[in-house]
What does this fold into?
Amino acid sequence: MSLPSAILAQFQQSKRMVVVTGGGMSAESGIASFRQALIGPWLNYDVRDLATPQAYARNPKLVWQWYDFRRRLAEQTKPSPAHHALVDLEQHIPEFLLVSLAIDGLHWRAGSRDMVEFNGCVQRTRCVENGHLGDWDEEGETPPHCQRCGSPLRPDVVLLGEGFARNDVTRATRAVEQCDTILFLGEISALDPVAQFPFIAQRANACRIVIAPDNSVFSLMANLVLQTTPGQIFPQLIAQLTGNGN
Ligand SMILES: [Zn+2]
It folds into this structure.
């Protein structure tokens, strides 16, 4: 059996699947990484000035403007064929969870719903005092203030040094412990707890699949590895799975 056929067969028999994505999926839509986005007025800034809780405490306006810039970059892009294929896969698998390190909101825009966004989403804001999620007024102060409690707003993303939300880690880890198949799609930063997922999945006897161009802990621990970008083959595979191909 060819590698794509073996992966397709595993998708066909899977009842409980976890898919993990990160920077590689964002790149499919042309989203710049943190460092790639340090252009124009942002060229000489350091991550410590823009993306830490200390930076927000020192200069909330600057941190807000940086994430506002990245939000606008994300809004200028569209979900890729691989993002749309993941939505079809979600609808095909009885128990499915997407775990993403991306903050661009493209999975949501494509239609993915069973999802844990470890790093949050640049399209959302929350207030500093009470964590109220909500809309903001583009015309007013920078950063804007919460319409419910008046506290300043910040992007609903995990800043460096804050750590992931415990609920998210628990939900994702439990899904990996119980899955029969885990797919690592595109390049993904090997940060904990995501870097532990291949080992947890191995203990659960789950099939570990990687579709990504790079070598990583994920490919090292996998049963099936397709060394290519998500856009190259994944959409065709899912079209075959759901009967929209051929
Ligand atoms: Zn509030």
Notes: The pocket of zinc ion is lined by residues 127, 129-130, 132, 146, 148-149, 151 (CB under 6 Å). The first strand starts at residue 16 and ends at 21. Residues 60 and 208 are 42 Å apart (CA to CA). The two ends are 18 Å apart (CA to CA).
